[in-house]
Design brief:
Elements (H helix, E strand, L loop, with lengths): L1 E5 L4 H12 L3 E6 L8 E2 L5 H8 L4 E4 L13 H22 L3 E7 L16 E3 L10 H20 L3 E6 L10 H6 L2 H8 L7 H18 L1 E6 L10 H4 L3 H8 L3 H8 L9 E3 L2 H7 L7 H9 L7 H6 L19
Parallel strand pairs: 1-2, 1-4, 2-3, 4-5, 5-7, 6-9, 7-8
């Protein structure tokens, strides 16, 4: 089976290409940068390049994108070119080639301002039913690309699945305050409570989406680690997150104390993966409880695939204040 993967010199693209090759699939890898899993170097903005790469493909995994860290270093037009026009080119050529499944990697960032409730309100219980309110060009361009996927299913009958992934990057956080308050591993473990996912689980969700796409037609799913919280916890999470964690995952206390780690005092959102688990049959392994057990046993909390892929960074240049410049 011939599979087209975009962004194969980046985190998820490489993880997908590695996994698919190991499964015996023929992988055509696209990226603007060369890499071990990139067979075609070029831009998805070039439709001719996309058309040549698409020949014979039966499935497309579209992970290439300009990310939030590029907002401060790239023009808004660049986001439209890559995230919108590039996606359009891939959809046009996939439809023309008779591709059976198109899986688009989107982001929970499309929710934007909907993720931060007003003062005094409960934490946001984020499901696919929450209406996005993008707050920057990254969110706008990803939401537009999602709508293009829906349009191509409606009008060209292309089976398209959109996966809104939460954080899985291994790089340091872009929030200087967060970096100063928490050790990096402590910060990431905390995020598995409500807004992070391991890349191995992300890959599994993509593979299941491609398998189920012809039957599902078009769907959007949140892809994040399974939270231990329940909807009735949201008001308390906004004022005393530690008390909720003590109730839901009491075993955290011993391991956190041993490492000198802390929980966040409050949480403003919780990503909910229930629909992806129910409709895709997705069973993410790397949730907060599982990672605590790995740490207790002296193991690395990251999956083997996450360790293999490692950190990629988002820019060639280095910056004095943090891993990349920040602009909301």
């Amino acid at each position: 089976m011939r599979v087209l993967v975009t962004g194969t010199s980046g985190h998820l693209g490489e993880a997908l290409a590695r996994t698919l090759r190991d499964a015996g699939r023929e992988v055509v890898g696209l990226d603007v940068l060369p890499g071990a899993y990139t067979s075609h170097v070029g831009s998805i903005v070039d439709r001719g390049f996309v058309a040549r790469a698409m020949r014979g493909a039966q499935a497309v995994f579209h992970a290439a994108t300009l990310h939030k860290p590029h907002i401060a270093t790239h023009r808004r037009q660049d986001f439209v070119d890559v995230n919108v026009t590039g996606t359009l080119n891939l959809l046009e050529e996939a439809a023309a080639a008779g591709v059976r499944a198109f899986v688009y990697t989107s982001t929970t960032s499309v929710f934007g301002d909907a993720l931060v409730p007003p003062a005094g309100a409960p934490a946001a219980w984020v499901t696919e039913d929450l209406a996005p309110v993008p707050k920057n060009i990254y969110g706008v361009s990803k939401a537009a690309a999602e709508d293009l996927c829906q349009l191509f299913h409606r009008n060209q009958r292309l089976a398209c699945i959109v996966l809104r992934t939460s954080r899985f990057f291994p790089e340091e956080d872009d929030d200087r305050g967060a970096r100063e308050r928490y050790a990096d591993a402590n910060l990431k473990l905390n995020e598995y409570l409500h807004r992070r996912v391991d890349i191995e689980d992300v890959v599994e969700a993509h593979l299941l989406a491609a398998e189920r796409a012809p039957a599902l037609g078009f769907r959007r799913y949140i892809v994040s680690a399974t939270t231990p919280f329940l909807p009735e916890d949201t008001a308390e999470l906004r004022v005393d997150a530690e008390r909720v964690v003590r109730r839901r995952v009491p075993e955290y206390a011993e391991e956190y104390a041993r490492r000198g780690w802390r929980l966040p005092p409050r949480l403003d959102r919780v990503y909910v993966n229930e629909r992806a688990r129910r409709e895709l049959g997705w069973r993410p392994r790397y949730d907060f409880r599982h990672l605590l057990e790995r740490l207790r046993l002296g193991e690395d909390y990251r999956s083997p695939l996450a360790r293999q892929v490692g950190a990629k960074g988002y820019h060639i240049e280095r910056f004095a204040d943090g891993p990349y410049p920040v602009e909301c």
